[in-house]
Amino acid sequence: MRKQYGDVVALDGLDLVVPSRTVYGLLGPKGAGKSTAVRILATLTRPSSGRAVVAGFDVARNPADVRKVIGLAGQDASFDDGLTGRENLRILGRLSRLGSRGARRRADELLERFGLAHAGDRLVGTYSGGMRRRIHLIASLLRAPAVLFLDEPTTGLDAPSRAEIWESVRRLVADGTTVLLTTPCLEEVERLATAVGVIDRGQLIAEGSPAQLKAQIGRHIDVVVESADHVPSAMARLERLTGRCPEADGSRIVVAAVDQAPALPLIVSELDASGAVIRNIGIREPGLDDVFLTMTGQTVGPAQPVETPEAVS
Ligand SMILES: Nc1ncnc2c1ncn2[C@@H]1O[C@H](COP(=O)(O)OP(=O)(O)OP(=O)(O)O)[C@@H](O)[C@H]1O
Ligand SMILES: [Mg+2]
């Protein structure tokens, strides 16, 4: 798929295959083209060129057929804050041609199933962030879709609400739904997805299982020594031990991307022999943010909080 808005190339030949009954995670930073891909696949916009087939239907030639078998929980779903959750769902159900009785029954069933029955008669305007996301998810399920698109389903949620959404997605997949999920969140794809595509500037720059992507990067050894005085000797030992050039930042030393990390006791005894006093040491599995950093030189997701230097008086 290729999509251009004026001079902006939102998608630059994105090519994806998503096996049925799996979760595919599309991971990328802001503006990478994730929502554009979802919008094309959900028939909300057309590709400038290229072709996409969803559940056997061509999105450009048979959009009405595609719409019958998909659900979409978009980044900007429209709910009426002045109506209750149940009322909103009934209206959306009728718009999806479930009929008035069918819409009512389905709304009740889904509210119950996703733990929102108690809040169904409250105004959506009074819902918490987690409840809102859940009702968006419910709205995308009114027609029991074969293919579900979730555009950043948990962005901005706290940990318990995210866990609830993840559990709901797992249940849907167990029941036979195919899910394409976009996210800036590494943990989310590791928790849910069988396959991950890393997207940057409209292109797929890496693809595989979360484990495969992590294996491309290797492990990290993290060492914190007592003070900066201990850094040079510790670094020399670590370099000899791993064959890699360590990096130091204050009293913290990192050896990035070792294919085979030496056993922890060996690292400890070597560092001990070097005379460096160790405060902390660890062998870290890489996260998908390391994958992204290695491939694009950029981090994914919210920037780390930066410590502001104290004003000097
Ligand atoms: N309707 C539009 N008109 C013009 N430019 C657009 C439009 N929609 C998207 N774009 C541009 O296309 C690029 C991809 O946007 P898209 O919304 O797909 O990114 P995204 O990966 O979903 O980002 P985010 O993580 O912020 O949601 C961006 O540069 C964006 O500004
Ligand atoms: Mg988006």
Description:
There is one protein chain. With 313 residues, the chain is α/β, with parallel strands linked by helices. The chain folds into two domains: 7-209, Rossmann fold (3-Layer(aba) Sandwich), CATH 3.40.50.300; 217-296, Alpha-Beta Plaits (2-Layer Sandwich), CATH 3.30.70. The protein has helices spanning 34-41, 63-69, 85-95, 100-113, 129-140, 159-174, 186-192, 210-217, 231-242, 264-273, 288-296, and strands at 2-5, 8-12, 23-27, 53-54, 57-58, 70-73, 147-151, 178-183, 195-200, 203-208, 219-225, 247-249, 252-258, 278-284. Helix 3 (85-95) packs across helix 4 and helix 8 (210-217) crosses helix 11. Mean pLDDT is 86; it is low at 301-313. Bound molecules: adenosine-5'-triphosphate and magnesium ion (MG). Adenosine-5'-triphosphate binds at residues 5, 8, 10, 28, 30-36, 75, 184.
